[in-house]
Amino acid sequence: MLLRFLNRSLITKAICSKRLVQQPDQGTEENPNQVDRVIVEVSSSEYIASTAEILKRMMLRRHNNVEDFEIVVPESLLEQEQSTKRIFNIVLGAIASISLIVGGIGIMNIMLASVLERTKEIGIRQAIGATKNDVLMQFLGEAYQSA
């Protein structure tokens, strides 16, 4: 990249290897010849993987088989984000399920205590002709009103 866009005679090994350049009378400034990032755009998404592989091989050749660079493919970042969301949804679903189960057990205990306290009343209602369905509807109605 440096050779293509700058005058080749200005580029030295010392300049390319330093991140900061010491200027006499101006202090320290950032080296304009340091390449931090190269963004490559492909014409079609089907070429992403092959282009990344070609770029990696080319950079390895240029860096004498030292992998001191990173090639980031947005497609892999998107897959990581989706897998993180999936895990997050599973965890939230598990927490919601446990909460519903605990809430259901709590309501069941309250209803059981209510029925056990009122056994005489249930017996009297059945003695005068109430069916099991009538008693059930009474307790469900009371539970609905109290909630």
Mind explaining what this structure looks like?
0% of the residues are buried. This protein has helices spanning 2-5, 13-17, 48-62, 74-117, 119-127, 132-146; strands at residues 20-23, 27-30. With 147 residues, it is mainly alpha-helical. Helices cover 63% and strands 5% of the residues. It has six helices and two strands; from the N terminus they run H-H-E-E-H-H-H-H.
Quick take:
By secondary structure, this protein is mostly helical. It has helices at residues 2-5, 13-17, 48-62, 74-117, 119-127, 132-146, and strands at residues 20-23, 27-30.
The coarse silhouette is rod-shaped
Share of residues in helices: 55-70%
Structural class: mainly alpha
- Assess the beta-strand content as a share of residues: 5-15%
Quick check: average pLDDT? 80
Series of secondary-structure elements, N-terminal to C-terminal: HHEEHHHH
Uncertain residue segments: none
Q: Measure the end-to-end span.
A: 70 Å
Keywords:
single chain, mainly alpha, rod-shaped, 147 residues, 6 helices, two-stranded antiparallel ribbon, 5% strand
Write the layout of secondary structure elements.
Blueprint: H1 2-5, H2 13-17, E1 20-23, E2 27-30, H3 48-62, H4 74-117, H5 119-127, H6 132-146
Antiparallel strand pairs: 1-2
